[in-house]
Structures are given as C-alpha cells and as structure tokens.
Batch of 2 targets.
Target 1
Amino acid sequence: MRRLTFWLILGTAIALIGLWAGCGGGGNSNEILIGEYSAMTGTTATFGQSTHRGLMMAVDECNAAGGVLGKKIRLLTEDTQSKPEEAATAVTKLITRDGVKAVIGEVSSSRSLAAAPICQANGIPMVSNASTNPEVTKKGDYIFRVCYIDPFQGEVMARFAYNTLGIRKAAILKDIKNDYSIGLAQYFEETFVKLGGQVVATQAYSEGDIDFKAQLTALKSAEPEAVIVPGYYTEAALIVKQARELNMTIPFIGGDGWDSAKLVEIGGQAMNNTFFSTAYTADDPDSIVQNFVTKYTSRYNEKPDAFAALGYDAGLILFDAVRRAGSTDGPALRDALKTTRDVRGVTGSITIDADRNARKPIVIIAVVDGKMTYKETIQP
Amino acid sequence: MKQHRSKVYLLLALVAAGILSKFETSISPYYFQIIIYIGINVILASSLNLINGFAGQFSLGHAGFMALGAYTSAVITSSLHLTPGSAASYPMFAAALIAGGLVASIFGLLVGIPSLRLKGDYLAITTLGLGEIIRVIIQSLDFLGAARGFTGIAKLADFFWVYAVVAVVIFTIANLVRSTYGKGFLAVRDDEIAAEAVGVDATRYKIVAFITGAFFAGIAGGLYAHFVTYINPSQFGFLRSFEIIVMVVVGGMGNIAGVILAAAVLTILPEALRAVAQYRMVLYAFLLIVIMISRPQGLFGAKLDWGRLWRWIGRRPSPPAEGKA
C-alpha cells in the first residue's frame, strides 16, 4: 500500500515535471503574448485579483475590437503569492520561457522592484499597474507605471487635510514593515509641514497586527486634529474601529491602500469621518468610467475598485503603445510608451512623463454613513 | 582512507562546477534560475539538517541566519562596487560570502549559548523568535533599505559559486558527522542524558552544530542576494524557515542524500505546479501531506543510502525521477 502511494506520488511528480518542461513557449504569429505577474494569492490577493480582472477586461475588449496590429492579445498570468522572490521567478519565466513582448504588474512596490531589473536586462517593457514607490521606474528606461507616485499622493493627502479639512495638528500611524506606508507618511509630513501644519505624534505598527490601542492611546494624548494612517485596509479598518472605541472622533485619513470594499465591511459605521485618496471611484459620472463600471459589474458581479481600474488602464496604455509603435519590438514599444499622451483611461487622462511615471488626477473618497462616497478630484 | 576519497570527490565536484558554469548561457534563464535555487536550497537544507537532523535540535530560525549572510555580503560588495566579471570580483566576493557566513555564525553562537540549554519546543520557540528579531531589526535599519529592500546588488553568484559551495557543504557535513568526533552529534540526538553520562559535552556539540549550520546558511543567503540582486526582509520570514524544515523532514532527518533530493524536488514542485495557477500551493501542501502520511520517516528515511534506495524502489533498473533534478 505504501509502495503504491509512493509510486502514485512519483508518477504525479514525473507527469507534472514533464508537463512543465514540455509546455509553454511560443504563441503563434497571430497572437501578441503579454505577461502579467500578479498577487493572485497571499497577503495582498484582493489587489492582485482586482488588477487581473481589470486587465482581462481590457484584453477582451481589445480583442473584440479586432486586436492590435491585426493580431489578438494573449495574456499569460503568473501568481506571485505576494512574495518578491516569486515575482522575480514569475517574470523570468514569462520573458525567457514564454517569450512575452511586454510585462504588466505588480501592485506592490517591493515585488515590482524585484522584477524590474529582470525586465530591464531583457529589454522587455514593464508597465506597473499600482506600484507607487518612486524607486520602481528608476530601475531603467523600460519600466513604466500607470498610477501616480507616493510623493504626489502624500502631497495631495496633506493639501486635502490642510486646505479642505482645515487640519493644523496631525498625527501619523504608519506600517513600519511597509515601504509604501513609510514613504507615504514621509511625503505627507513634508508637504504638511511646508503648508504650515504640525505633526504632533508618530506611532508605528506592523502588517498583521490586530491590537492598536497602545499606539492610539499615545496618539490621543498628543491631541491631534486628525490621524494619518497610510497603510492597507485591513489594519486601517481595525485602527479606526479601535480609535472610535477610545472616543477618538477626529477624522482619519488614508491613501489608496484603503481602497477596498473590505474597509467598510470590517470597520462598518466606525469608518464615518474618514477620508482617503485613490486613483478612481465608481461614482465618477464620466461616461468612460460608467461604461467600465457597468461592464465590470455584469461580468464579475461586484463593483470595480481602483485596482481593477488601474489594471484596465495598464492594458489600455500598453495596447495604445503597441498600436503606435507598429511593432512589438522591445525598443520600439519602449519609445511608444514614453510618448503616451492623454490616453483616456478609467482613472482619468494619462500622460507618461520624462520619469516614466503617469501624471493624472487624484480622487478623494469620504466614508459617509458606512458608505464610500466621492468627495472631490484634485488635478496634478 | 575514506576521508581521502571524499577529498577527491570534493575536488572533482569543484572542477565539474567550474566546467559546467561555462555552459550556463546555453540553458534557458528560467531553468537556470531554478537550478540555482535548487543549489541554494540544498545548502540551506543540508546545513539545517546538521542542526535538526544530526544534532537533534529543533531550530526554526534558519531564515534569520540566511538574512544576516545576505545583508552582510550585500553591504560589502555594494560598498566595494564590485562588477561581475572583473578579476577583483572573485576573491572579494568569496571574502564577502565568508564574512556573511561568519556574521551569521557569530549570531548563532551569541544566541546559541544561552538558548541551547533549552530543549525541544522551548528551543524551537527561541530560535523562531531569534529569526524574527533579526528580520525586524533589518526592517528598521534605513541604511539596509528597511522595508523597501536592498536594491542594486551586483549579480556575482553564478553556477560555479553556488555549486562549489554545495560541494563544500556536503563534504563538510558528511565528513563531520561520519568522523569519530561527529558521533557525538548522534549521541546527543539519540539520548542527551546518556551522552552526557558517558562524557559527551552535549552543549558544546549543539553549539558546534549551530555555528556550522548558521555559517552555511549565511553563505547561502549571500549567494541568494547576489543572484536575485534584490533582497527584502519579507523574504526571510519564518515561512522561509519552515520551507527549509519541510525539505529536511521530507528528505529524512539526518539523511544527507535524502535532504539533497528533497530540496531539489521541493524547489521544482511549485514551479511544475504553475499549470494549475492559484491552486498550486494547495496542491503543493496536499502533496506534502500525502508524503508525510505515506512516508512519515521522510521520503528516504533516516538511514537509506543510494544503494538501499535503489533496491527499495524495485528491481527494475529505471532511474528514480528525482535523479532528473
């Protein structure tokens, strides 16, 4: 019996390895292979799933309209398990074994940073959908992004807090483990202080923490008028919930890491009087946005979040560049991506600047009565 | 005599690694990357095997030692601005790797002395804590890139470096545990009290195991850093330690050949399972469970050597699949 099991395992292993070594490669001449590496599983899986769905919509729409250069787009997706080393492996596989012409991904800056040097070394353009850390596109001239960068987002958050909410004394509660959170906190503080505000206290937590009362109590004693929580939605929702239990009724402000339906699912009514900046909102009356929302909702049975929109736009600017380049050659595609001007995407009009970052408007969302509602749009 | 023969093997392995590394550009970079990962995982699993398998200590902090080696060597090569291919890069890279290994083993010693007086579960928890402490400290040091990670490491590790270290690790550990001195590891593992009673200094043996294991884990970390060229503290979390432990357990605690094969198989498996997309880690875990139920002593048991494995698999002269790895 044991021997039988052993042979079964061995057989499966051989079959799998054979399958793995044998398949892949190629694509035919009527297809353009595009690679996507995305966090389909792991800690940031909801982001990865959303960007993937958005991108799938862009691909299908493009193919339905006849594809680009007379060819169909074929998307190959690899999971990164939300781990940087997996991102490096996945991208190496996509480029060297599958022969993709361009790579799209990733949400997390640390994973994009692991993958970017590989794309650069192979001369394959990479379009990041949601990595906001400035370092990512500094990895080389083949690396682009469709989202805004942390300095801009931090600046907008500070301007919003200072001008719109009239905050003068702010406190920061950041995720010490997360480069995104640290960066955003830093850029917020820089602008906020420049505007004349004051950061009265800074506390830290780590992704995965569930009790924040100690940090919140310390922040409360500094008497801030608002707390900035530049982290992800899970912790942010718990933080706000526990703050309300401590009778902190002041506004809480976050970045696009908050943008998930889970935020109000976890936080509920406690989330009232919180604000966050993001790339897009489904409430935007713009016809392109509404068209996207309708199609996405009917396909996936849920409202698209900002990551879905960014995933869609990443596909959009890439296909636009392929069309303008007239080829899928690495250098030609790179040059076309560099000259992307005013492409009307779901997240606004996208222009790629000299640093290969996107310049585009930013949206502020307010939670009112347990629901996310559109507050205002801030232009670059 | 046996000692002498194994030295010849080591020399042959080093030469083979040198020759084979000339062909590394002729293989697809994706497969090449996996071959390198196999080598690094063999080093990690073999060095942990010394601690967990031979000395019988349950360490959960191997990723921490790996992180120390990775960051130390990365800081050294980055500050020297080594470029791959230049003549100076080879000795300096070797020195950086050894420095990384030494830092890791110093940590192994520092924490080892007090914590090795603990046994079983308590030791496991202590080493787990150590690994996390190392990671969190790195995460908060800005000159190491903190949570952003350390970027721009020169790609110095190639086939030769990785597999030369693999050869040295296997040579060292095999000779260590087969020597008269090394019997002490097994004595400590099998019955610590009895070993002490006959004059085996158990604590000393445990510390030697920890220092040696940590040293090679540090070198593996250095190789990893200089192959991936980007390191991030999140790569060295306790899940990484668990992955290495799984390799040791699946290969058979204290079985050198088994652990090498397990490291290779378990590195290839997640890649081979890419076909099933997001279900692959479920399938991977499921296969681990099946292996543990059908072979609780590890795929190759504690004592099975190549010859016995051959006979056990059957009379048919078909090579085992893992041999392909």
Target 2
Amino acid sequence: MRAHGPPSRHVPQPVEDRRLRDLHASTRTNMASPTSEYVTLVSCDGFEFIIPRSAACVSGTIRRMLDPSSKFSEAITGRCTLETLTGIVLEKVCEYLLYNEKHKDQANVSDMDIPPELCLELLMAADYLDT
Amino acid sequence: MDNEVPLPPPRRLRHRSPARANQSAPVSVASSFRKSRRLSRFDDRSSQPSSDPALFSSDDIPASGLENYNAPAPGAGGRKRRYRGTWWGEQVQDPKRKRADFKEKRNVDSGVWMGSDESGAESLLTSEDSPAWGEDLLKTVLDPRAPGRAPTDLPFSRGSVPIPASPRQIVVNGNEESEEHRFARKVVNDCLEKGEESIDLGNFNMRTIPIDMLQSLQHLTKLPSLREPPISENAYFSLRPFLRIYLPNNSLATLPRELFELKDLRVLSLRNNKLTSIPCTIRDLSALQVLNLSVNRLSHLPWELLVLLQKGELKHFTPRPNPFLSIEDADIAEWHCKSGESQHEKNDGNYDDDDHKDDDKGNEKLPQTQATFTEYEGTPPDDAWTAIHVATGPTTLYNMDGKPIGNTPSSRLAKTQQTAPTNAPSLRELSLRALWKLPGLDFIAEEEKLEFPSLVIPLLSLAQGVRADGGWYCSVCQREFVSRRAEWMEWWDCTPHENGMKRPRASGEKMRPLPFKRYGCSWACVPDSQRVD
C-alpha cells in the first residue's frame, strides 16, 4: 500500500510544534515526572515524537496508558512505546492528535490531508488507538 | 500489440512428414515433444469449439530456441503475443489482464481438445493418453510454422500459459449484456443521436441500470430545428436540454450514481419500481422540476430532497403511495406545530427552532397526530406554499464503530462526558474519507477483500457503499462523511408540492407529513433542541 517515494520521505520528523521546539531541551529532563506536560510516543522502528499530554489523550488507548492511577510504566515514565505503528504512520497519527486538539471547539473544521497510501494503515492505527 | 494482425491460418495443418521433422530437430527434447504432438482437431473448420477459446502464444521471434528460452526475447520486450480463440488465432487476446485472473484459471480445463498428428482419423482420446493430454495441450505452444523449432517459452512460464477465458469473466467484462439492457442502451443512444430530450425507458423490466449507460446523456445536445432565419427573436430558444428520464414499471432496487450527475435533468419518473431508499446525492439534481417516486418500497425520504423542495426548482413531487413510516406509529421527540389558531405564529420559526424552543417544550406532551394548517381567509399566507416542519423524531447516536449507543438520556450523558461532542472528525473517519475517493476502490472484489486485515473489511465495504452512492453528506454541516454518528427523522408536510400541482394549502387543511431521514457526521451535528451541552 505504501508508495516508495524518495528516501527522504521515509524519515519522519518530529511533529512541528513551535512551542515544543523551544521547550524540547528543558522538558526532556522533566520527562520522568508523571504529570509532565509532554509525553513521548515511540514507534516500533525507534522514532520518538514528543507531543503535549493533552493532545496525546485524544486517543483512548494512550489516555488509559498514561492514566496516573493505572501505575503502568508508561504512566510513570511518560513514554509510550507503540509496537504496532511504524514511524511514518505514527508521524501522521501525531499530526492528527494535534489537529484534533486544535479544532476541538471549532464549528467548521476542514479535513486533514491524508495520503492515499497511508489510508489503510491509519485505519488500523485508529482502531488500535481508539480514536 | 493489440493492433497487430492475428496470425493467418497456418499454411500447413496438413500431415507433416515425420522424416522432415526429425531432420530439422536440433535437440532431443524437441523431438520428443513432436512425437506426442497432435494434429489440430480444427482441421475441419466447420467444427466450432463448444467451450471457451483457449489461449496461444505467438512464436514470431526468429532467434528463439530451446537453448535460449530463458533469455528475454529480443525486440518483443520479453513478452509474446497471445492469441485467443481458434487454433489459428482469430482474436488477439487483450493483454491487460489482471494477475489475479491468472491464479485461479491456471489449472482449469480449457475443454479444447487437440487431435494428434499421427493418430489422424482415430483422433479420439485413448485412455493411456488421458493423463498426459493436458501437457500435450501446453506443448502445442510450439510454432506450427517452424516444425524443427523447440519451444521458446516453457509452458509454465508466466504469461504464456494457455488460459481459457471463463464465462464468468465475460459477464464481468460486460460482453454479454441482458436483452433489456441492450434495448435500453439502444433507446439512450437513439436519443443521443437525435438530440431527443425525453428518454423513455419504461416497462423494460430492468433490475439495475448498467453503469455507463446514462453517463453519455451529460453530453446530450439539442439540435436547433430552424431551417430559415427566424423573423422575430422569439424563435430563438435555449439549447440547454430539458432532460426527461422516464423509468416507470421497472424492477430497479438501486439507482446508479451517474443518474445524479445529470445536471440538466428536469423530469424524473421512478414510478413502480422496487426502490427502498433514495440516495442523498439527489441534491445534485438542482434543475429537477418533476419527481415521481410513487409505488416503490420507500419507508422514508432523504432529507436532501427537502432542500430541493424549498430552495430548488422541484414543484411537482409525487411521493405517494409508498409504505412510509406513519407519524402515528413513530416516536416523536418534539412537535413543531400546533393545530388551531396559535399555530400560525409558530410556523415562522420552522427553520430556526431556537426562537421557539420554549413554546415547543409546552407542547411536547400533547398527542398531536392530527396537525392541521392554520385557518385563514382571503389570500393564502406565505407559508401556505412552503413545506412545514411538523415534528422531529428522537436522535440515535452511533459510536465510532457504527453501533448505536443507548437512547436514554442518562447513558447518553455518560457517554458524551467521556468524549465530549466534537466537530473534529475521528482519525478513522478521516482515513475513510480519504479512502472512498480512491479510484481503485471499485475494483476490489469480494474475494480480494479477504486478504485485508479482518477489521478493515467492514470499513472497506462501507467505503464502497459510499462510493456507490456518490458520497454522503452531513445534513447539518454539509460536509461529506462516511460513518454516520447521528440519525433522526423529521416530519415535514409538503402538500403544496404534491399531486402534480403547486397550490397553496386550504384553510385548516389537515397535514399529511412525510418522513425525511437526516444524518449527522458527528455528535455535534444533531437537532438543535437535542444537543447535549
């Protein structure tokens, strides 16, 4: 299903969030605290995406993983390893999580752009992440 | 490749001298092939094969031989021409066949039987031949024109295996069309040719409309009938066709999406069919003036039709008789109009319920199955001409998997608190929206779907359904959607448009509301009064 584009396509970049970029260095040290503002999502091929906790909690699965009362290791470290998602898919998923958080209260939301080759994989990911 | 002239009848289908053949045989394998070689049964040209034609590959590359059969054939791009049909190849087989087609047909008996060179007249299959005869069939790929030449292509190598075309595929290709479809197509083509705007396809007993039949009507051009220059300007008229399609007395259960792409369609009659629902894409027929849906199996109408009645050109609308859900039997969450005098003021608020929310609350309990129009004297008021919103049914909310969630307010509240109603679509919904627009979706066959992960299969079917209807649109926010999240019924009285005449309601006339079904794309797209905040 996935198109084989130029190799650069296959290197997902961390989600572009300006606040995030500024805070990147400082938050990394605080990551261990369970109430940190940012969480890390790790794909099966080792890509890490650091996104706001509120955005990550749009997904039901991640919300339950990070629930402090659950005492899961994810909740303690603030680091979720998603074994079923590759970096390319997880990049799009993170884009969606931020898109959903941004447009939560808006009346007329334009659709997010989804490349056709990722459609089916995102369907699977959406089922897994309950979003 | 397609345009190449098929092989001429081989010059020598006669008996070949074995000596000559042996003489030119370079390899022993080839000669062993030849021994088992049989004379074609089609020597007698009058005998037609009873089964589907077999496939043969050409052997027109001079440098080919057994010693280099693995090497790519020079000049031919590594591919050989293939012929289907009689032994001497009358039809060139369409090379664009899907890989999937080959898989299931590779081992199928073609039914074409080859006689043997040696056996001549007694070319009947003997029992000891029977296990090997299938191989013989394959070996006849040998070029008949070059007796000494070894096969250039292994029988089992990809792409050159004789594959009989199964009858199922012919149907898929549309080569064999049912008689009524052929007649209907002829009528459509005649109309196209003559510039006739009225297409009468009644009484054809069609169950479906072939996909590409109506598409060409988009390009129907009216012919000017003037022979001489007109005297006055009144003689000029618009060449925009006044397209009329009549499909009464068929057995249609579904309508093709092409029908709703005809922007010039003015008159559409679907009387006496077997339709159970009308797709919401009917809203695209903005020029529609007359619509006849009588004598079908409709239990409700699409809400988009109401838009045509209110804002479009639709004047003559014949929805009855149909087994519509009756307002007496249905659950009503909210009444929008009262009987008697006080109703007149209320009608103004039909389009925005918010203004009259408080009034509605007071009336909710009243059993108002006998709504009547306001009484008036003299000239009819404006709203005597328009559709009137009579009632709204309860809303069914669906979760992300498309399963309805409990309808009691408490369970709904619990559910919505967990995930607040949001306008942002879910990731699954977004992917599905992207998916149904993919052009390849139409070509995913049922058996191919089994190869997909099991949780995707129902979603794929859903996307195919949306594609078949040409898209679904949320009736609140007008965006397209795939999985519905809310669904409710609205009752509207359309009597001024019904029965072929546009006339105002009579004073105090009894309302005969019709059910219109509305879909919402998210939990935020529900009737105003039922929104959970």
